[in-house]
Amino acid sequence: MAPQVATQLEHRREPLVVQPEQQVAGRQLAQAEAERVAQLRRHRTHLDGVGRGVQAGDVVGRQAPLLAHPDLAAPAAAEPGGGVELGLGLDHRAHDRRAGHTGVDEIPAPESGGRPAVVGAGLAGEPVQRDDVGGAGHRVADRFEPAALGLEPPAQLQLVGSVHARVAHSDPVGGEDDVVDAAGRPGRRRFAPDGARQHGRLHRPGHDRPPVRIGQNEHVVGFGPGPGIGRRDHPHGVGVADRLRTRHGVVSCRRRRDETLTWNIVPRLGLRVADPPSILHLPDDAFLLRGDGFAYALAVTPGGDLRHLHWGGPIEPADVGVLLTDDAREFGSNTWSSPRAHTEELVAHGGRRLDESALKVEFADGVRALDLAAESTAVSGDELTVRLADRHYPFAAELHYRVRGGALERWTTLVNDGDAPIVLDRAYSAGWALPWQPRWVATWLAGAYAAETQLTRRELGPGRLVLESRRGIPGHAAQPWLALDAGDEARASDEAGAVWSVALAWSGSWRLTAELAADGRLHVTAGVNDFDLRHPLPPGTSWTTPVTVGVFAAAGHDELTDRWHAYERTHVVPRPDAVRPVLYNSWEATFFDVRPESQLELARRAAALGAELFVVDDGWFAGREDESAGVGDWTPDRSAFPDGLKPLADEVQALGMRFGVWVEPEAVSPDSDLFRAHPDWIYQWPTRPRTLARQTHLLALSRPDVRAHLVQALDALLSSAPIDALKWDLNRPLTEASSGLEGAGSVWVEHVEGFYEVLDRVRERHPGVWIESCASGGGRADLGVLSRAEWVWPSDNTDALERLAIQHGYAYAHSPHTMMAWVTDSPTYLTKREIPLRFRFHSAMTGLLGVGGNLAEWSDADLAAAAEYVAQYKRIRATVQFGTLRRLSGAPDDVTALSYLAPDGAQVAVFAFAPSVRRLRRTVLLRLRGLDPAAVYADAATGTRYSGALLHHHGLRVALTGDYASELVVLDRI
Ligand code: GLA
């Protein structure tokens, strides 16, 4: 039973009380505890050297139970003096209001659904200055013990806010230390004799740095004295980034000698602590998977079935026993019932499984029924694998579960252990069971080309909702993402209500089904689309499905959005912590008419606006005068670029921007050298006409030779000029699912695997290159591609009003820091709608700001205004890109409003849009969510001060007058 965190938060100063139930077992544990306390006391002396020490058992500041992870003791014991402290701190502004307590913020009780808590520790009466890291003695290093918060290790910790670190060490003689640099290379570090102290700032305060994660077994942050191992963001020149590893939240550093060392890493707001992602193997072969705010339970029955027990809010291990004896779950209550996800973790076709199954195969003898029994289970860290083997054939399905913060990832490996071929007719990643509810409402992102990700909500009746793509890419019609809730329309359901959601990380044809049984239970499946699928599994091989991700939120769509954004930022996108640059893309300015002079002119103007990345879109390569030719030949057009792209790239970079180009590697124009040389490299049926789409064919990336060619061609392109970014596009569907290769697998699967392989190899060879994913706009914006691309081009529709609706939906499934948005000319070429510059900028500033207009024709006044918007965006972009999104109003034909709260809570950006005057409305009152009610926020433009409580309970009044009115209000916490 977890101790109640709330009780530890009261103003008090008393020893840490370890709840009896926390003490795993009797005397042994008491002994261990005594040792641990002794260790901690030894640490204390070291702490005294840096700040005011705390006694083991102290409660510091307002709450800060002295936190000590059991593992903390271990390195200290093994390496005397090498102990490590993890210091937690709060920005002093948070404390000043608390009557001299520089303590801690809130730690929500576990029963709040296990949502992340902010933990911090400070020292009463010693306010911490924002920039005081250089000064000694202000911080206290508190030990951190997840268990004391009711969290079992390994806890997942995330630093929020800006991070400061200080290292202090004392050593009688000084000496050398073994260190490992950020690239993993071993090195030596000299340090001075006793009393030396080095400190510095790791991340500058303010808004220009993203949060830094401390995850289990991840190296994180840190620096220390000594030459040679540089870290770019070290400001004081003393050195050095040691590569520190955290294990269970403990930062460790190997010491050679008996000196003392204290690392004091001070996040300004503290550590965000998630419930520990952990997997418990319980009696009766039951497993309880617990992540941040959710639990998932399953069990192997004595008969070898793998039964589903629970998916939803956190439950206790003891509850699993109750679920196991819940007879209502038994299958077979009447002749017509069919085992489904509520009774079986894997519903595999065979017997009475006549509803949507997740797996269907054909054995060599023509048998198409499966009969699986659990064979083994294995837990490794946050991952559980259950192997189900067929009772007759040498075939197995391994079900994988991995806890990732607030998300559960699941996938399946299908194994042919025999010597006869097997064909997979359907191999979904997993089936998901949602519990009984009287009513189910589905939320999904439907759309079309230039109208992607439109938020769609419908009540489900008994029957099956099918969302899918059969186009070889995720497509524009729907995103592989679905959320399900009880649909309480009385409220917006933003702030309350349980929501389950499922996504699929797959950049090809996919299928999600939600089948509501008449008994009110809901079954969701997610996987590669089985449309036209016959995927061979030759003898001795295996195939692993893509990952499906399940995210549960106990408190409505706000929480669900936070969890998806956190998952995507923490576990999916490359360079998660890097601020995305302001982009200029020349597509709408020049279309296919790409000439160096005009591009350079655009580049000059873009640079003057403050753009940081300049991308030349379609039209730069040989033979590309219009849509009809050239795709496939990734060499610059000789007449326009006689010396290649390098001169232009150099000039762009000399203007202070990075340089990128558009490519469409998977397509080929019939009128191209590549197609002329390899007409057999495309998907085609031998006896059927080939389907042209946007005047291209699709290259057969299922073929190893095509993959190798593309890697080589892109490598040559990226080596030919200093290219920093690629916009990777695909503008046609997969139509003829045949590569003509004997014994090949299913093209539907292998094309996507080929795409991933080429992209991965290109990224490997050119790790500095950033990728934008595009497929005629937002046709490929799934989690699979997002693990390989820094951002997505969500739509070709750059009409700022249309974009509000597209972006509104997009941000349900994806973080705004993957959502590119350009300001283009008015009217836009697609909608012909005229929209003022201000509205266009504000709309684009809610995501990754880009500019895509023909700057050569912009007036001086517009250019000057644009430069101001860009500058303003840079002041808020860390808030937009890494902050917490709240949808305040989302009706695109009326008022759309949204806010972003910076990770450290210090800044709020509020956007409001009204396309037309309605009902004589002149102002709107926006009730902001997520602010500190006790804090004071100042309007950066007017200086007006508001309390957080006022902004929440009464609202922020925003004037929206006239058609296409828009407003951006930036509030700084003071
Ligand atoms: C697609 C993309 C556009 C642009 C064109 C170029 O439509 O979505 O952004 O790159 O191709 O042909």
TrEMBL record:
Alphabetized UniProt keyword annotations: Glycosidase, Hydrolase
Pfam families: Glyco_hydro_36C, Glyco_hydro_36N, Melibiase
Region annotation Disordered: where it falls in the sequence: 169-211
GO BP of this protein: carbohydrate catabolic process
InterPro entries listed in its UniProt record: Aldolase_TIM, Alpga-gal_N_sf, Alpha-glycosidase_related, GH, Glyco_hydro_36, Glyco_hydro_36_C, Glyco_hydro_36_N, Glyco_hydro_b
SUPFAM superfamilies hit by this protein: (Trans)glycosidases
GO molecular function, one term: alpha-galactosidase activity
Presence of keyword ATP-binding: no
Reaction catalyzed: Hydrolysis of terminal, non-reducing alpha-D-galactose residues in alpha-D-galactosides, including galactose oligosaccharides, galactomannans and galactolipids
Enzyme class: hydrolase
Enzyme Commission number(s) of this protein: 3.2.1.22
Domain Glycosyl hydrolase family 36 N-terminal: 304-537
Residue ranges constituting the Glycosyl hydrolase family 36 C-terminal domain according to the UniProt record: 896-971
PANTHER family for the chain: ALPHA-GALACTOSIDASE C-RELATED (PTHR43053:SF3), GLYCOSIDASE FAMILY 31 (PTHR43053)
Protein's UniProt name: alpha-galactosidase
